[in-house]
Specification:
mainly alpha; Helix Hairpins; about 0% strand
Length: about 100
């Protein structure tokens, strides 16, 4: 008997509602970018392959930057108090032991 897969876990070969494979997560894209950078730094690859790797790295870099900007905006929204000054640092009232005296 084969063990059954948990249906809540997505298999990497599964496709989303549009019939496309789901895009890799932030961490996977960052790891791929790091691998591309290592290959390019090695310098032992042909020029055409280096150009293709560089192009892929630039696309990954831009998508990672967009994700980080989106997360940064969410954090800003979550740390703002209604009617408060948005330039203020978020308070640490929940962690009094961390407050400076």
């Amino acid at each position: 008997m084969r063990p059954q897969k948990d249906s809540s876990q997505k298999d990497s070969s599964q496709k989303d509602a549009d019939g496309k494979k789901p895009s890799p997560g932030f961490e996977q894209r960052l790891q791929r970018l790091e691998k591309l950078a290592e290959k390019l730094r090695g310098g032992s690859i042909p020029l055409e392959e280096a150009i293709a790797l560089f192009e892929e790295g630039m696309k990954l870099s831009k998508s990672l930057e967009k994700d980080l900007a989106r997360v940064e905006r969410r954090v800003e929204i979550l740390t703002r108090e209604p009617g408060g000054d948005s330039d203020q640092e978020p308070g640490l009232e929940l962690f009094p032991e961390l407050e400076e005296e």
